[in-house]
Amino acid sequence: MIEALINMVLLTLLAAIMIGVVRLRNLFAVVILSSAYSFIIATVLIVLDAVDVAMTEAAVGAGISTVLMLAVLFLTKTEEQKPKHSPALPLFVATVTGIALIYGTLDLPAFGVPDQPIHTHVGAYYLEKSVEETGIPNVVSSVLASYRGFDTLGETTVVFTAGIGVLLLLRRNRRRNGKNGETS
Amino acid sequence: MRLDVILRVISKLLLPFMLVFALYVQFHGDYGPGGGFQAGVIVAAAVILYAIMFGLDAALEAVPVRVVEIMVPLGVLIYAGVGVASLLLGANFLDYDVLGHDHHHAQELGVMLVEIGVLVSVSGTMLAIFYAFAGRGR
Q1: Which domain holds residue B100?
Q2: Which residues pair with A28 in a beta bridge?
Q3: Within its chain, how far is the Cα of B60 from the centroid?
Q4: Burial annotation A84-105 (CB, 10 A radius, 16+ → b, else e)
Q5: Non-local CB neighbours of B83 within 8 Å, separated by 6+ positions
């Protein structure tokens, strides 16, 4: 009961922040609002008992990506230009997508129903055998790092690839700027 | 000149706790929520806070770009290295059971090493991206 109330308050706040983000033209305010959005999402995740995801969201979503956005703002203007086209078509697309998504949720099982495949196949096996087979009480850790070590290796490689990609793009520009500075 | 003395003192006080919390999240991941990814982003956030409050140059002195750029591939190498080690010891790739004498200890050792790999790669990547962006405005 109280959990539902908390969730409702948090989700209402999310909607309010989103309306603010859409309506504001000052990009600095938008960046700060999206940081607040991430913090509230992190709180929602804590209510849902996903503390590790909440930690990631608070550190990456609210912290690091906000800083990166501010660094980008430092390089550009902080005021968004007025849109040149009418917002009718994007509004229509967003409304139709939203209705389709809400329609899709109608078929979802209720929250936490125990007889769903996710709880009956390997999930139940992990919960029963994790301590016995790996000696690790936190099932999330044992699934991530031991049972599904290949997946996590792939995820680490994705992070690595993203880092290398950004470095290649941004560092090449830096070197070219340096060269221009020397010749001109 | 600088009027942000409260922010600077508070962040200086917070930084060691942030780093210790990151280590806690890292090594207590077997028992509580957390793991390499969470610890990695907390470490990166701590260094970024330091860079914001005390200037990019101070952060670059504490954590140089070279170190960060080595960390990005090093983490993946640690992770894959655990897999190769288990291959060389005669088991399947990333099968931790051969890493120690006792079955549970082997699993815990393997998970710990793998999580360290994730920590190194994630914090390195986050910091590398931050440095790449922060260095452009100058």
Answers
A1: 5-134
A2: none
A3: 16
A4: eeeeeeeeeeeeeeeeeeeeee
A5: A149, A153, B93, B94
Which residues of chain B are within 8 Å of residue A153 when distances are taken between CB atoms? 76, 79-80, 83, 94, 114
Contacting residues of B for A74, CB less than 8 Å apart? 137
A23, two tokens:
């309506």
Structure tokens that stand for B125 in this block: 């990547």
A83 or B13, which is more confident: B13
Helix (H/G/I), strand (E/B), else coil: B7: helix
pLDDT digits (tens, 9 = 90+) for A155-176: 999 999 998 998 888 875 554 5
Contact B80 A153 (CB under 8 A): yes
Q: What average pLDDT does chain A have?
A: 85
Report CB contact under 8 Å: A152, B76.
no
Q: Where are the domains positioned within chain A?
A: 1-79, 115-139, 148-184
User: What is the full DSSP assignment across A112-161?
Assistant: T-TTSHHHHSHHHHHHHHHHHHH--S-HHHHIIIIITHHHHHHHHHHHHH
CA dihedral sign of residues B32, B35, B38, B39: positive
C-beta of residue B47 within 8 angstroms of C-beta of residue B62: yes
Which among B108, B74, A133 is positioned nearest to B99, based on CA atoms? B108
Residue matched to tokens 């809400």: A102
CB A153 within 8 A of CB B46: no
- pLDDT above 70 coverage of chain B, percent: 96
ipTM over 0.90: no
Report how many domains make up chain B. Answer: 1
What residue type is assigned to position A11 of the chain? Answer: L
Q: Is A133 on the interface with B (CB under 8 A)?
A: yes
